[in-house]
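Hi R.,

Here's the chain you asked about this morning:
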Amino acid sequence: MADHWGHTLYVSPDGSAAFTQIFSEGDVIEFRDRQDRLFIFGSEGIEPSGIWEHDLTSHDTRCVVRPTERPFSFAKTITHSSVVISNGNEEIIGQLWRPTTLPSGRKYPLILTQTPYRWTPYPNMAACAGYYFLAINRKSWEEGIDTWESDVMTAYKELAKDPHIDLSRVFLLGFSAETDPISHLAAERPDLWKGVVMQSPEGLPDVLKTKISTMLIQIGEKDPKARQRIPPYLDESARHGIATRVIIYPNARHTSWSRTTEGAKVEEMADFLSRN
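And the predicted structure, written out as tokens:
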């Protein structure tokens, strides 16, 4: 028996014994049970996801297909790797997605964020759309959010050395409380960013201080934290020449989204990226 709680996995061989946690430091994206075994798509730590087999009797876990073998359907299109970046005092760890093929002379836009390492469709989608996508790992939702700005700036300085990056097309991405540091960074370093993507925002960039030219805001119709602020903010950003696209999803709340809505969010973001 197995329960998928969040992004880890708890297993019990016969359903009556105490649950044992596996992949506690990693990420479980999906799993299937086959008699006395589990097959898991995920990662034990910060490495890219692979396919694993877990023996429910012996509790042994082995990697069946490593991500470096690249057997997955998107393997020929994108590359996903873990990266370690030093800010001079300490090292920060992140996940980088990018197009696999990098023709000479071509430059690519970049999306930066700092968030807990968990599977979402956005990095793969962005890389398939021709973007670099770097997400700095955060330990938990609350722990580490105070270093959001410094981590993102460290990542920016490192990736700015990559000749394939188009520094005129750098975007910030954030969810909920992450939009507060996004808004501050957009005002503090207005020369660096072309645009921002915000979902369920708690903070909104000061249109008088930022130089961003485009913005995507995705919010639930029943989100109490920002719903009332959006219409006047949309008018204000338009008056200052910021192309702001606001999408309000019916019946969605601040963090409660249906699968249909989640799919729509991915499609809308893909459309936004293709236009920028």
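The helical segments are 122-128, 148-159, 179-188, 230-239, 259-274.

Let me know if you need anything else.
M.
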